[in-house]
Specification:
8-stranded mixed beta sheet; 274 residues; alpha/beta; 14% strand; Spore Coat Polysaccharide Biosynthesis Protein SpsA, Chain A
Length: 274
Amino acid sequence: MADWKKITATMPAPKIVAIMPAYNAGRTLEQTVREIPEGSVHECIVVDDVSADPTVEIARKLGLRVFLHRENQGYGGNQKTCYVEALKTGADIVVMLHPDYQYDPKKIPDLVRPIVEDRADLVLGSRMAYALTGGMPFYKRLANRFLTWCENKVFGLQLSEYHTGFRAFRRSLLETTPFLLNSNDFIFDQEIVAQAVWFGARLQEISVPHRYFPEASTIGFGRSVRYGLGVLALLAKFFLNRKGMINSRLFRPLHHAYSEVLSDPGAESPATRT
């Protein structure tokens, strides 16, 4: 694990904000927050997507900044609110950490280190080194490796996984990426990665332990198939856009007014703060 004190002692300390897109995370939220290393983040933001359990009450008890969606926005829609609200706080680095305790919060210092040291703009926490010990189902391992192989071919990279929910973003990447145009579903995760590659961001990855257990959020086989087909369609769109055969709005330069919305503390949000 990275020595956080050594990292921050040699350079200006960036403001690091952890975001948690939450939906029925009441059983795991507190344990996830308790294991975030002290001093590794300045603030935690929880955006609740109309949970039917005590997620909101637990988040309030923990003293987290909580936003509530008036209507369910979906996984991607939740992330959009998370990033917008994090940028409004003045975050220099935004860490996405699922509140289901699937990923190890103790790895946050290692995750942000490449950004702090100006070696990356987006860092992904790859699970593949721990895929067997972490209990990842066989069909998910197989699909993950196939889709990652396809993405490496199209993106020209050599990463071990793109499908992780543990990520760190440099502020400038979020400010210049039109992620608000992305899907509100699970494919959002891959759309924002494709956009990062398109706009020339530097990507790195670290290995992270993970856990599969009943309370950890996951998607079923049918939805996984739809997700996989969505990834392949996205790669086709990326490839055709690069060849100049189409002009997808996902890969157009960000309009100036859009970046102002992201940094404006008074901008309208689909969530209300509590």
